[in-house]
């Protein structure tokens, strides 16, 4: 009898995660017996021992694959043996697996974002403004830069912006099209008017803080831009409601969640799961 597969998600908090439903759907479609569990791990240093324990379970074969989300996409890196080229350039990993006795970190957020972004009318687009500079933003920046876009980034936390910019400036990727702007209404408004796409890569607007919005209230959304919000809980954030009211093309991050999960599942099992079936499993 084939050993049941065991996958899971490391992060904190994980109370509203849709990942178990996505991966159980993929397992059923593939005809595989397995389980996908949630592993809440507190931010380091408090969660260090638990994080190391989970990675050791993956090394030993007790677990067959792990996803990583906030706040561990970057803090997990020193505990890995190897990174895929894209994960190394991004500086964040969301998918872990064993290969040739090495614990490998990959990043499926970047291709997942790009695959879902193509549902918006971006055929002639080439410039973006990214709100946020954390692990999710790093993947978005990578996806856009590798497709030749001009990217501006901003964040309330200047140290995060500086870290992202410095990181990309020394990677084997053309970072000449990456720029930092101040997190002020004036700078954001100007950058927005020069952008074809605005992406919220912050948790602002995510449940339970649904009253929050990454876009400053004092300025209007740029009338020519598409709006993409990585948040998917709730499905309609304040930012997306604002975009819809303004008549702008907009999309939440549920499709990206599905895409990155399907790519991770394929890495672990070799099976290409139906994105449509996975989406139907979690869409309200």
Topology summary:
Blueprint: E1 5-11, H1 19-30, E2 34-40, H2 48-60, E3 65-68, E4 82-83, H3 85-90, E5 95-99, E6 102-106, H4 109-117, E7 127-131, H5 135-145, E8 150-154, H6 158-169, E9 178-180, H7 185-193, E10 197-200, E11 226-229, H8 238-246, E12 250-252, H9 254-269, H10 275-282
Helix pairs in contact: 1-9, 1-10, 4-5, 4-9
Report on the structure:
The protein folds into 2 domains: 5-108 and 256-282, 3-Layer(aba) Sandwich (Rossmann fold); 121-248, 3-Layer(aba) Sandwich (Rossmann fold). The chain is 37% helix and 19% strand. The chain has helices spanning 19-30, 48-60, 85-90, 109-117, 135-145, 158-169, 185-193, 238-246, 254-269, 275-282, and strands at residues 5-11, 34-40, 65-68, 82-83, 95-99, 102-106, 127-131, 150-154, 178-180, 197-200, 226-229, 250-252. The strands form 2 sheets. The chain has a 6-stranded mixed sheet, with helices on both faces. A 6-stranded parallel sheet has the order 9-8-7-10-11-12, sandwiched between helices. The protein is globular, with a radius of gyration of 19 Å.
Task: Give a short synopsis of this structure.
Helices cover 37% and strands 19% of the residues. With 284 residues, it is α/β, with parallel strands linked by helices. The strands form two sheets. A six-stranded mixed sheet has the order 2-1-3-5-6-4, with helices on both faces. It has a six-stranded parallel sheet with strand order 9-8-7-10-11-12, sandwiched between helices.
């Amino acid at each position: 009898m084939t050993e049941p597969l065991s996958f899971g998600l490391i992060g904190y908090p994980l109370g509203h995660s849709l990942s178990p439903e996505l991966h159980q759907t993929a397992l059923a479609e593939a005809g595989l017996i397995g389980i996908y569990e949630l592993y809440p791990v507190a931010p380091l240093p408090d969660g260090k021992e638990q994080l190391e324990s989970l990675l050791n379970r993956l090394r030993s074969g007790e677990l067959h694959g792990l996803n990583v989300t906030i706040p561990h996409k970057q803090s997990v890196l020193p505990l890995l043996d190897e990174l895929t080229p894209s994960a190394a350039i991004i500086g964040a990993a969301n998918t872990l697996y064993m290969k040739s006795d090495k614990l490998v970190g990959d990043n499926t957020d970047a291709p997942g974002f790009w695959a879902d972004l193509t549902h918006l009318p971006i055929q002639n687009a080439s410039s973006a403004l990214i709100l946020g500079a954390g692990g999710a933003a790093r993947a978005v920046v990578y996806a856009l830069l590798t497709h030749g876009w001009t990217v501006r980034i901003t964040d309330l936390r200047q140290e995060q912006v500086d870290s992202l910019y410095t990181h990309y400036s020394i990677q084997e990727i053309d970072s000449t099209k990456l720029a930092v702007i101040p997190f002020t209404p004036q700078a954001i408004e100007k950058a927005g008017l020069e952008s074809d796409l605005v992406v919220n890569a912050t948790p602002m607007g995510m449940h339970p803080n649904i009253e929050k919005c990454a876009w400053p209230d004092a300025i209007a959304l740029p009338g020519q831009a598409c709006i993409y919000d990585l948040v998917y809980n709730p499905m309609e954030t304040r930012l997306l409601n604002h975009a819809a009211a303004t008549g702008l093309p907009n999309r939440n991050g549920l499709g990206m969640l599905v895409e990155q999960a399907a790519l991770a599942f394929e890495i672990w099992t070799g099976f290409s799961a139906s994105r449509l079936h996975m989406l139907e499993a979690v869409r309200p």
